[in-house]
């Protein structure tokens, strides 16, 4: 039984290392794609804001800060630049006059859509070279990983993007 636990831990460490390596590779790939989408690319932290707002449209700064693991003042500074780019808007809350709701603008939604299209194109060119069984295993593994992450750290709003947020 101890050998089973040891093998399981080793496999978990190997999977974590492989995931880390892929994430680092994707970060480099994404940086190139983000530069092509907008002349004033957003930072990784600002991109996280856009993702959170896409899933939790109309949230306030406190909720955004919690989702980002940042203080509301830090979240506010991130939003300042995004608002200056026209990617988000702040509007009076329908529930509490003292609060402001954060929403993606059509320009912000368009930015995310364009970014996803470019990313998917880059991924498709690499994935198309994989054997069919490897593609299926990749899909199964990534779907399982997504479920585990969603279960461990849920974000505000729906965790799955609806079909309108995905490229065709």
Automatic annotation (TrEMBL):
It comes from the Bacteria. Pfam families: MarR_2. Residues 149-168 are annotated as: Disordered. One of its GO terms (biological process) is response to stress. Residues 15-144 form the HTH marR-type domain. GO terms for molecular function: DNA-binding transcription factor activity. This is MarR family transcriptional regulator.
């Amino acid at each position: 039984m101890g050998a089973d636990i040891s093998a399981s831990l080793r496999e978990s460490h190997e999977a974590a290392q492989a995931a880390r390596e892929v994430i680092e590779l994707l970060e480099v790939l994404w940086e190139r794609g983000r530069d092509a989408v907008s002349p004033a690319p957003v930072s990784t932290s600002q991109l996280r804001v856009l993702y959170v707002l896409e899933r939790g449209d109309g949230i306030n700064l406190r909720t955004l800060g919690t989702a980002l693991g940042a203080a509301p003042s830090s979240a506010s500074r991130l939003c300042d630049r995004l608002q200056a780019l026209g990617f988000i808007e702040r509007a009076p809350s329908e529930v509490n006059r003292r609060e402001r709701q954060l929403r993606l603008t059509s320009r912000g939604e368009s930015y995310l859509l364009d970014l996803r299209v470019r990313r998917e194109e880059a991924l498709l060119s690499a994935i198309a070279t994989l054997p069919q069984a490897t593609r299926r295993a990749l899909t199964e593994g990534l779907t399982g990983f997504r479920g585990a992450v969603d279960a461990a750290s849920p974000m505000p709003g729906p965790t799955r993007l609806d079909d309108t947020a995905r490229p065709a």
